[in-house]
Amino acid sequence: MDQLFSLIEKIKQKSVYYLIPIGIFVLIFPQLTDNQYVLHVSIRILIYMLLASSLNMIVGYTGQYNIGQAGFYAIGAYTAAIIATRAGYSFLLILPICGILAASMSVFLGFPTLRLRGIFFAFTTLGFSEVVRLTILNWRTLTRGTFGIPGIPLPEIVNFQVSTNNHFYYLGLFLLVIMLFISHRLINSRIGRAWVAIREDEDAAKAMGVETFKYKMINLMYGTFWAGIAGGFFAYFAGYVSADSFILDESFAILAMVLVGGKGTLVGPIVGAIILTILPELVREIARYRLVIFGIAILVMVHYRPQGIAGARAEGRRIAVESEYEAGTAEPVTETSGKGS
Amino acid sequence: MEAILRTENICKYFGGLKAVQEVNIEVEKGIILGIIGPNGAGKTTLFNVLTGTYNSTKGKVYFKDRNITNLKPEKVTGLGIARTFQNIKLFKNMSVLDNVKIGFHTQTKTRMIDAIFRTATYKNDDRICEEVGMELIERVGLKDLKDEFASNLAYGNQRKLEIARALAVNPDILLVDEPTAGMNHTETLEVVKLLEKLNSEGLTVIIIEHDMSVIMNLCHNIVVLNHGQKISEGPPEMVRHDEKVIEAYLGREE
Q1: How far apart are the C-alpha atoms of A277 and A287, rounded to whole Å?
Q2: Which of A194, A323, A331 comes nearest B151 by C-beta?
Q3: Exposed (0-12), middle (13-18) or buried (19+): which is A123, by Cβ within 10 Å?
Q4: Cα–Cα distance for residue pair B225/B203, rounded to 1 Å
Q5: What pLDDT shows up at residue A15?
Q6: Residues whose CB falls within 8 Å of the CB of residue A203, separated by 6 or more in sequence, listed in order
Q7: Which residues of B touch A331 (CB under 8 A)?
Q8: Which of B233, B215, B225 is closest to B249 using CA atoms?
Q9: How many angstroms separate the CA atoms of A201 and A189, rounded?
């Protein structure tokens, strides 16, 4: 295990050199294979990359444990399905609507709950995603309930018909690159710093003048926006949506990808999505134990590498513990006197 | 002299515990005010009420003649009151420089759209954060550690970083809560010198401290709290010989 992780460290240190070949490989990948199954799985991986990255913005950067990301994914997917089948607007118009609608729903969720800390927020998001699923199942006039919505037309982008898996692959890749690009820029700005400050210490962030509620809300909207986009893309790709695609398992799977890959880094969720999508595909017989695999993966990671595969947390636990120890010995009365005096 | 910060009968009760009771303080512009008192005297609670971290039970706080009672802490900071924490509250998994950059939050205006397209606003804000941030880090002597994670810093350096971060707010008044706790003699002297320098540049400072040599050397004025009440106030020489203060610290002779 240790050798494996030290290998990862080495790769990370030279990650810039790997970026170019990986980029080229990703770009020409569809040309290398005619195997439609492989392509299909790659597109699913891309969707999960988008979902895991979107969740990572919330869990990894602001530290708000949203465990109902599938709810926003579902909102995006059904928005696309309903508008595309009934109104027939163009793909380029519908896709942003998917994101905007998911983000505006997150305002309803966030307004009463973002003032809560820790586990309470997590519970509410969990409940929210179930509410979304049950609404979909029961609002038959809009969503056709258990029948799902079939016959979603193929997307057309300015007279170009997206039809083959190759097309969808590049479209998904494009969305992911855009998402990562924008996220990267936000993280390295005043906004991203405020997000991370909230994750690290909300009280201190307030003392530095960060309007924590506002920034948590912006963050939640940003993360769920991309979940909505991922949902819209999924609806077009699958051509059919049903509530079964958005059960709680899906939320947990997305969260597992973030945790295994490494929250709080842009690369982490990408790595996590690859591993946790390919793993169940490799061993088809155990695919129905998908969640068991995810559970084990999370446990192993938490034990051996709490920051995730690509995580960037300090120099590991040793130093962090040491500095806490120093703080503890230097001023043994910190906690108690902090409350009293 | 005009009072930059003053309180009127400020009270903070936690249920039956009267942590701060009817305290009146006036902080003149440009001075260093020391707040001392035995453990549990209500010093940090007073800080928390002044900065909006706690809502006061009764009473009022005025900053530059503006009523700031029970404003949210982020608003108070925006007005120009910065603080450090007794139990260090750094952003542990952020670099030293990034910790300081957060302090510029209220002075910068980058919105999402600016960040995505790197507009002039973004570039301007980024330059301020980078340049002034580096200056502040240099001032507290952490220049060589700017890319280190805050959690990896030695204890004394963490306290210095807290001060640098508070200074980034560009405050009119700085509240420091036991800035030299756990520091060795050399580090303590460095902090004292830094605070003196900042004060000579016009910054008003309120300091809570247990190290009496620091308090006596640094402060122009001292407020003594005991059991949440102000028991004495005045220049160091006067407070030092006040019988009530001696009694609070050492107990009464039977």
Answers
A1: 10
A2: A323
A3: middle
A4: 24
A5: 67
A6: B53, B73, B85, B89
A7: 87, 181-182
A8: B225
A9: 18
A100 touches chain B (CB under 8 A): no
* Residues of chain A neighbouring B41 (CB-CB closer than 8 A): 341
Distance from CA of B253 to the nearest CA of A (A): 25
Say if the Cβ atoms of B149 and A211 lie within 8 Å: no
A88, two tokens: 């027939």
Euclidean distance between CA atoms B20 and B48, whole angstroms: 11
Which helix H or strand E contains A308, and what residues bound it?
none
pLDDT over threshold 80, residue A321: no
- Chain A residues with beta carbon closer than 8 angstroms to that of B104: 190
Question: Do the Cβ atoms of B89 and A334 come within 8 Å?
Answer: no
Contact between chains at B101 and A341 (C-beta distance less than 8 A): no
Burial code (b: 16+ CB inside 10 Å, e: under 16) for B109-147 equals ebebebbbeeeebbeebbeebeebbeebbebbebeebbe
CA A74 – CA A241 distance, rounded (Å): 9
Contact B140, B197 (CB under 8 A): no
Nearest CB among B85, B104, B116 relative to A185 is that of: B116
Chain-chain contact of A341 with B74 (C-beta, under 8 angstroms): no
Pairing of strands B32-36, B204-208: parallel
pLDDT digit string, tens, across residues B173-186 = 999 999 888 888 88
Closest CA to B131 of B198, B139, B119, B74: B139
Rounded to the nearest 5°, which phi and psi values hold at B131? -70, -55
Interchain CB contact of A40 with B (< 8 Å): no
Task: Name the residue type at position A73.
Answer: Y
The pLDDT confidence band at residue A20, using thresholds 50, 70 and 90, is: confident
**Amino acid identity for residue A246 in this structure:** F
User: Which residues of chain B are under the pLDDT cut of 70?
Assistant: 1, 253-254
CA distances for A119 relative to A65, A66, A124, angstroms? 7, 10, 9
Tell me which DSSP letter residue A62 carries. I
Whole-number Å distance between alpha carbons of B188 and B113:
44
A177 touches B at CB < 8 Å: no
Angle between helices A248-261 and A69-86 (to 10 degrees): 120
- A316 forms beta bridges with A314
What domains are defined for chain B? 1-80+171-254 (3.40.50.300), 91-170 (no CATH)
Question: Counting every residue, how long is chain A?
Answer: 341
pLDDT value of residue B254: 61
pLDDT bracket for residue A312 (50, 70, 90): low
Residue A311 in contact with residue A265, Cβ under 8 Å? Answer: yes
B56 touches A: beta carbon within 8 Å: no
pLDDT mean across residues, chain A: 82
Report ipTM for this prediction: 0.88
Contact predicate B46/B98, CB 8 Å: no
